[in-house]
Design goal:
ABC transporter involved in vitamin B12 uptake, BtuC, 352 residues, 0% strand
Length: 352
């Protein structure tokens, strides 16, 4: 009797310590994110002191030169990089759970290739569909159409295919088909247009508008809340579809929600920032190691925070390493993410 009581006390203490440690990690990464975002707003070709940044934001000063730089350029970019990194990390986590494969990312289902294909039609063929008023936004609209068009095709196939491996192959084939058509368009395009298209393919969080930020906050936020609410079914799904079904999970609906959420998040970021590599692949593994758990109720908010930290840091490096020349964000995330994934594979720590 005494032994059982002591074991219960020890277990309660362990849970309390674990909870305290995780809250400390959330706080640490949250503060780190704020510091990096502050650096992104302050630093650049023109350095703006922290106090002046606070005054400009507090007074909503958009008339001065520094006010214009902060409100129209740096602040939207800093917020977009944080949101984009968090959303891509969550999308990667969902797909790794769905496929029970630790080396899949959010673009494995052809989302990035679909967006790239439609953007290539706009940028390489001057396709405007007659809407000359929307011409400045055509690349973004085309990327949305390509990403979500591919998502609809994959989702319709997912309703008829039960095997995740088969669905994975379908996604890869969709990617190859889109890439093939894009390559043909590049072969016949003019040299000047190819340069702009190649730069878009490398990804960037520059040039964000507040309307795009609002879409990201509202749309992505609702999807992340949905995913967090599905944390328990996600944990059950890790143990197999049969086990999840025995726990009362509607497998058909659940598979649809996972694919829809991951594709929607990845498509949203690709549409407005271009393809951003390795964040969705590497960050979920970092979160698992940092928090020491596979509980998705902990991993989902962890992916949001750490994904935001990693992408914000990479965006800062992209702007500052060779300033005033700006590096593509995908180059920095690849330099950051590839060694992490390789080291985890070598140490056999890439697990679900």
């Amino acid at each position: 009797m005494t032994t059982n009581i002591m074991q219960s006390i020890d277990l309660a203490n362990m849970r309390k310590q674990t909870g305290t440690r995780r809250r400390t990690l959330y706080l640490f990464f949250g503060i780190t994110l704020l510091l990096i975002m502050a650096a992104n707003v302050m630093k650049g070709s023109i350095n703006i002191p922290f106090r002046e940044v606070l005054c400009i934001i507090g007074n909503h000063d958009t008339l001065s030169v520094n006010g214009f730089i902060i409100w129209k350029i740096r602040l939207p970019r800093a917020i977009a990089a944080a949101l984009g990194g968090g959303y891509l990390a969550v999308a990667g986590l969902l797909l790794q759970v769905f496929f029970r494969n630790p080396i899949v990312g959010p673009f494995i289902l052809g989302i990035s290739s679909g967006a790239t294909l439609m953007v290539s039609f706009v940028m390489l063929t001057s396709l405007t569909l007659g809407f000359t008023v929307l011409n400045p936004f055509m690349a973004t609209l085309a990327a949305f159409a390509g990403a979500y068009g591919t998502m609809i095709i994959v989702m319709s196939i997912a309703t008829k295919v039960k095997s995740p491996v088969t669905l994975l192959i379908v996604g890869l084939m969709m990617g190859y088909l889109c890439h093939a058509v894009t390559s043909v368009l590049v072969a016949f395009a003019e040299q000047e247009k190819i340069k702009g298209f190649v730069l878009w393919q490398l990804g960037s969080f520059s040039g964000f508008r507040w309307s795009e930020i609002e879409i990201m906050v509202l749309g992505g936020g609702l999807i992340c809340l949905l995913i967090y609410a599905l944390a328990k079914p996600l944990n059950a799904f890790l143990l197999g579809e049969e086990y999840a079904s025995s726990m009362g999970v509607n497998i058909k609906l659940f598979r649809f929600l996972i694919l829809f959420s991951s594709c929607a998040l990845a498509g949203m970021i690709t549409a407005v920032a271009g393809p951003v590599a390795f964040v969705g692949l590497a960050v979920p593994h970092m979160v698992r190691l940092a928090f020491g758990t596979s509980d998705n109720k902990i991993l989902v908010p962890g992916c949001v925070i750490i994904g935001a930290v990693v992408t914000s840091l990479c965006d800062f490096a992209a702007r500052m390493v060779f300033s005033p020349v700006e590096l593509p964000i995908s180059a920095i995330t690849a330099f950051f993410g590839a060694p992490i994934v390789i080291s985890l594979l070598m140490r056999r720590k890439v697990v679900l």
